[in-house]
Amino acid sequence: MAEADFSFLDPLTKAPGVEAAWIERVPGIDVVVDRDVALARLLPAHKAEVARRFGAPFWWRAEQVHGARVAWVPGAETKPAGDGLPVVPGVDGLITQAKGELLGIYVADCGAIWLADRRSGAVGLLHSGKKGTELGILATAVAAMRERFGTDPADLVGVLSPCIRPPHYEIDFAEQIVRQAEKAGIGEFRDVGCDTASDPGRFYSYRMEKGMTGRMLALIRCGSLA
């Protein structure tokens, strides 16, 4: 898989031991199919890339129902997804303070939001498109990290992935997410600023490809000192 510039993730490394990654379009894989089949076809390439970057065979996955619920892992219940792999049901975000746990979120126009606590190394990873943004999943996750891990929002570093934006989408939910980050008191927040609908050679776009496409994969591994 070709290397790309993922320096936009560098702020996350300010948190102790945290590692993050972003897997874009995988060349040569036919994804003009529904979501579950596309994810199954992408799985071998994703597994190989996760092994290369993290040396890990497994990552936690959220069911991603366009809501605002967040689950703490490990310990959350799972169920099989349509592609046969386990997901945490009914949630669009995952948080952890368990050292070495790897979180994953799939997107194709929606935004992935990485969160890392510079003090403790606790992390979160969220799926935030139009609906999740309207429902305030970012604020929910920040509150959950505060409650579970004692995270001070001022210690958080956040990054918003490439996502669809105007003029290709009528709602600028990326701008809303940036405002929500400021309101939540997140100490440092970076919006990558890329439009997934503008570069089909690099990104999957649900809207531009009329729902028959693959998914990018956002990943973060906890480096918790707890």
Summed up:
This protein has 226 residues and is of the alpha/beta class. Helix content is 23%, strand content 23%. The chain has a single domain (7-221), classed as 4-Layer Sandwich (CNF1/YfiH-like putative cysteine hydrolases).
What are its keywords?
single chain, six-stranded mixed β-sheet, four-stranded mixed β-sheet, alpha/beta, 226 residues, CNF1/YfiH-like putative cysteine hydrolases, 12 strands
Structure overview:
Helix content is 23%, strand content 23%. By secondary structure, it is an alpha/beta fold. It has a single domain (7-221), classed as CNF1/YfiH-like putative cysteine hydrolases. Strands 3-6-9-8-10-11 form a six-stranded mixed β-sheet. The longest helix has 20 residues, at 35-54. It is globular and about 45 Å long. The N and C termini lie far apart (35 Å). The mean pLDDT is 95.
CATH architecture: 4-Layer Sandwich
Considering DSSP H and I runs of 4 or more, what fraction of the residues is helical? 10-25%
* Major sheet strand order: 3-6-9-8-10-11
User: What is the end-to-end distance?
Assistant: 35 Å
Topology:
Blueprint: E1 19-23, H1 35-54, E2 60-61, E3 70-72, E4 79-80, E5 86-87, E6 93-96, E7 102-107, E8 111-117, E9 123-128, H2 130-135, H3 137-149, E10 156-160, H4 173-184, E11 188-191, E12 216-221
Parallel strand pairs: 2-7, 3-6, 10-11
Antiparallel strand pairs: 1-12, 4-5, 6-9, 7-12, 8-9, 8-10
Protein name: Laccase domain-containing protein
Pfam families: Cu-oxidase_4 (PF02578)
Family: Belongs to the purine nucleoside phosphorylase YfiH/LACC1 family.
